Amino acid sequence: MNAVLQYAVQGLAAGSFYALAALGLAIIFGVLGVVNFAHGAFYMLGAVTAAVLLDTLALPLWWSLLVVPVLMFGFGVVVERLLVQWLLRLDPLYNFLLTFGLTLVLVELVKQRYGVSGLPYKLPGALSGRVDLAGVVLPRYQLFVFLFSVAICVLVWVVMTRTRVGMIVRASTEKPELARALGINVGRWVTPVFGFGVALAGLAGVLAAPFRAITADMGNNFAIILFAVVVIGGLGSIVGAVVAGFLVGLVEAFGQAYAPTFAQILIFVLMALIILVRPAGLFGRKEATA
Amino acid sequence: MTRSVVDEAPVTEAPAPVAGSDPRLRWVLLSAGLVAALALPWFVYPPVAMDIVAMALFAIALDILLGYTGLLSFGHAAFWGSSAYVTGLIATHYGVPFPLAVVGGAVFAMILALPVGYPSVRRSGIYFAMVTLAFAQMVYFIGYQWSDLTGGENGLQGVPRTFFGIELVETESFYFYYAALPILLFGMWAAWRIVHSPFGRVLVSIRDNTQRARALGYEVDKYKIIAFVLSAGLTGLAGGVFAINHGFVALTELHWSTSGEVVLMTVLGGIGTLWGGILGAFLAVMLADYLASSGFDGIDLVTGSVFVLVVLLFRRGIWGTVRHQWLAWQQRRTSSRRTSAGADPAERGP
After folding, report:
1. B146 → chain A, closest CA residue
2. In angstroms, rounded to a whole number, what is the distance separating the alpha carbons of residues B84 and B102?
3. Which segments cross the bilayer (chain B) (predicted)?
4. What is the pLDDT of residues A151-205, one digit of tens each?
5. Looking at beta carbons, which residues of chain A come within 8 Å of B263?
6. CA–CA separation, B147 vs B155, rounded Å?
7. Measured between alpha carbons, how far is A215 from A205 in angstroms, rounded to an integer?
8. At the topology level of CATH, where does B46-332 sit?
9. Which residues, 6 or more positions from B32, have their beta carbon under 8 angstroms from its beta carbon?
10. CA gap A248, A18 in Å, rounded
11. Residue A66 phi, psi dihedral angles, 5° rounding
């Protein structure tokens, strides 16, 4: 029982990274129609930036959780203005290829600058160690990651449902034609939404920094699993992205515990099953199926 | 420019293959291509020349899907790499002549393409790219984990090069090139036949208007799966020859970066052109070879930048641009002739 709970928390912590990043991916896809291949690279940049800030300015994790997403937002805005916007009116495959090229460049730049061995990231004292919850001993940081990302997801959810901006973004994501028919200027939100999605990927990276090896390559496999996450959740769905993110984290953690050889493969098997049973994904609408 | 969300856009900008393009021109191109293929190892280090031709077939096989069926497979490394491994294993354990091993690898790639293709073709457009990428990553992990068979991170080493009783050792790569060339040329010929057959016409109609193709009674998913399997088979031929050429199979062959590399070659050469894949492969392999020999270790920096630039500024690709200019020139010529013959130019429209 104890072990099962530990794996569950571990899975939910790993799932937090997927959920946050997939949320960003889903919002970007919804409003821009862009599948951002570079999302894994942005996640990596978030982690690397946090590590560099800690190393040079001794900026603690708490501050990084705030500063890095802001920096990544700015970076996302630059990328959108400089590159992505020119291809928005064409087939989405072109932006997929563009962001793929961008990924190669970003990863290689980080590799050239910081090498291939991992950067260190020391946990703040308040978050290290373990916590005893009614006889179940759990790593404190994993619990923190899970609670923090749930809080962020709830926050995003509140913004999405309770504010005007959120409703516009949600309408643009889930029914773009209808939103425009109702006179909403979807185009105005393109740049900030891209920046916001990139910021979420960066935030996931900061959270992952003390937890994973910080290398230039850390985002590569992450990006591909993210694609599996959004296919499982349904690419047009914001809720689907979050739920599938946690689900995939759990599958990964239990897979690693009970069948380590197949842990990575299980996620893709799950994806294949979902496509066969529900092509539009768990929360996807029928229209999303091309 | 008004900025708006992307609407339903055509899958590629590539025009349909030109039916009945000048047959004389085709023969000229074909002979020039053949002479170039035969002459290549005289000018380029033979193993590199072999890589160029193998990669060219890889890009052409991808183009059957991307250019003619409108499906971007971002997981073709799965077929390239698995065929390389199977070819290597057959050659190592059974000592058969290498062409047989290559055929074995290609057959394996086609068998693998069935379970991958079946769920994948249920999604199209960007979904298809993501799903194939994910499945290829799964194959990568299988290759990584099953190290008893594949050698894991060390790769599969010491793949022999037996050609009907003759051992073509390392120094004889020049002769190996000519021994393996027919396999790859056969693959290219097959791709050409597929694209220009009635079956290929149906693929183009699926690319241009899936709904209409379905309404006309074609079982779209079945055609897509067949195209996927054929493309995987040709990819397998190329991957097998590549494995024998190097005498070694690395895990990189299964990696997603290999899938991306071949997409770059195809796009750089020109989507929907077949010939473009050859040019794209030539440039990419020569560039990688040049960078590696000049001691530059950031090849991805160059590859990624080229990718970004080509997608932003040069989406027709080399061959696509040439063909576009050629067709525009021909149209200008015929229309000016008509005008001088007294036909009404307004009738033709812009």
Report:
1. A261
2. 8
3. 27-45, 52-74, 94-114, 126-146, 174-192, 225-244, 264-287, 299-319
4. 999 998 888 888 888 888 778 767 777 888 888 877 788 899 999 999 999 999 9
5. 97, 100
6. 8
7. 11
8. ABC transporter involved in vitamin B12 uptake, BtuC (1.10.3470)
9. none
10. 8
11. -95, -45
Q: How many alpha carbons fall within 13 Å on the CB side of residue A87? A: 28
Q: Which residues of A touch B135 (CB under 8 A)?
A: 268, 272
Domain boundaries, chain A: 2-288
What ipTM describes this predicted complex?
0.85
pLDDT in tens, B57-85: 999 999 999 999 999 999 999 999 999 99
Mean pLDDT of A265-271: 89
**Cα distance between residue A281 and residue B290, in whole Å:** 45
**Residue A58 φ/ψ region, left for φ over 0, alpha for ψ in the -120 to 50 degree band, beta for the rest:** left
Q: How far is B162 from chain A (nearest CA, A)?
A: 35
Whether residues A35 and B125 touch (CB distance < 8 A) is answered with no
Q: Residue B120, Cβ neighbours under 10 Å: how many? A: 27
Contact B256 A101 (CB under 8 A): no
Q: Which residues of A touch B13 (CB under 8 A)?
A: 90-91
Check if CATH label 2.60.40 holds for domain A2-288: no
**Do the Cβ atoms of B304 and A103 come within 8 Å?**
yes
Under 8 Å between Cβ of B48 and B55: no
Residue B182 has pLDDT above 90, yes or no: yes
Nearest to B254 by CA among B151, B111, B153, B136: B136
Contact B119 A92 (CB under 8 A): no
DSSP alpha helix (H) spans, B196-316? 198-208, 210-215, 220-246, 256-269, 275-293, 299-313
Phi (first) and psi of residue A230, to 5 degrees: -75, -25
Helix/strand/coil for A119: strand
Tokens 């079982």 belong to residue: B219
Q: Are strands A130-133 and B162-163 parallel, antiparallel or unpaired?
A: unpaired
Return the DSSP state at A217: T
What is the C-alpha separation between A174 and A181, in angstroms, rounded? 13
Distance to chain A for B187, nearest Cα, Å: 27
Can you tell me whether residue B152 is helix, strand or coil?
Answer: helix
* Residue ranges covered by each domain of chain B: 46-332
The residue ranges of DSSP E strands in B90-136, in sequence order, are none
The type of residue at B226 is I
- Cβ distance A23 to A200 under 8 Å? yes
